[in-house]
Specification:
Number of strands: 13
Radius of gyration: 22 Å
Helix content: 40-55%
Largest sheet: 7 strands, mixed
Order of helices and strands: EEEHHHEHHEEHEHEHEEHHHEHEE
CATH class of the largest domain: Alpha Beta
Strand content: 15-25%
CATH superfamily of the largest domain: Vaccinia Virus protein VP39
Distance between the termini: 75 Å
CATH architecture of the largest domain: 3-Layer(aba) Sandwich
Number of helices: 12
Oligomer: single chain
Structural class: alpha/beta
Number of domains: 2
Length: 299
């Protein structure tokens, strides 16, 4: 019998499964189900079962470690759910965002990597603000990802986050608990935070922007992301229009508005913002060179 180094240490038995074999089997199942990165997801699910990071799983594979029967069964159950296209983040209960690890699950939009770039525009504007205590507002905060990134990366700022959905608000409350410079509000962005009107340096939002009749291609989005976080009216821009009006009231002259949107919406958003009186409207690309965010300045 050979000793291997899964923690706690295991010996191969008839009831244990070499980790490398378990990962190959999991990746094959996920690939057949159409999961985009089956090998990566298999390693992350194994790491969730083992309480280890992806690098540790890869190291354990190289060492020839094995899963015991309970671990193998737990991994198989997670792989079956992932093959049914349940989001990976719902299975692990976490989603990475910049330097953060956020709690996520049913009822909240899972933050995407491309939103990390959008958040940077708001963070840069806060860092450039002349005020010793700049104020930021995150509308449609969802899990609280953008708000928490601003609050932790610009600790001298005061950050306010607004969420309409009680389910998403519960996740945001969990993620932002204990952050002293962040205040979370359950409410409608159109009539919330009136006490801040004319004092805010940065307003940012990743609003619902999918047109009502557009059906998302990915089952993870179509079946599991909350509709309230996805759909934004006939052209997808109803909430953007409301944000334009509300941000105008919140921001002081010279304040910055940052909006995430679909790659095909930049021109339409610049047009509606210009019609509302915004200046210096500009659309920016993400790391895949797709239009992802539009910024504007309140005159």
């Amino acid at each position: 019998m050979r000793t291997v180094n899964v923690t706690p240490a295991l010996r191969w038995t008839s009831m244990s499964v070499p980790l490398a074999e378990a990962l190959r089997r999991a990746a094959n199942v996920l690939a057949e189900a159409g999961v985009l990165d089956p090998a990566v997801d298999a390693e992350l699910l194994a790491g969730h079962v083992l309480g280890a990071g992806r690098g540790a799983v890869q190291a354990a594979t190289i060492r020839g470690d094995a899963l015991d029967e309970a671990q193998a069964e737990a991994l198989d159950a997670l792989v079956a759910r992932r093959a049914a296209r349940e989001p990976l983040q719902h299975l692990t209960g976490t989603a990475p965002f910049r330097h953060l690890e956020l709690a996520v699950g049913p009822g909240v939009f899972v933050p995407r990597p491309e939103t990390e770039i959008v958040a940077q525009f708001a963070i840069d504007a806060l860092l450039a603000a002349a005020s010793p205590e700049p104020v930021a507002v995150d509308l449609c905060t969802g899990s609280g990802a953008i708000a928490l990134a601003m609050a932790t990366e610009v600790p001298h700022a005061r950050v306010h986050a607004v969420e309409l959905s009680p389910e998403a608000h519960a996740w945001a409350r969990r993620n932002t608990a204990g952050q002293p410079n962040l205040a979370l509000v359950l409410g409608d962005l159109r009539d919330t935070l009136g006490e801040l009107d004319g004092t805010v340096d940065v307003v940012i939002s990743n609003p619902p922007y999918v047109p009502d009749d557009a059906i998302p291609r990915d089952p993870e989005v179509r079946l599991f992301d909350p509709a309230l976080a996805l759909y934004g009216g006939p052209d997808g821009l109803d909430v953007v229009r409301a944000i334009s009006r509300r941000a105008w009231a919140l921001l002081h002259p010279g304040g910055t508005l940052v909006l995430e949107h679909a790659e095909v919406q930049g021109a339409a958003i610049r047009e509606l913002l210009a019609a509302d009186g915004w200046r210096a409207t500009a659309t920016h690309q993400d790391l895949t060179r797709r239009d992802r965010a539009t910024t504007a300045i309140r005159p």
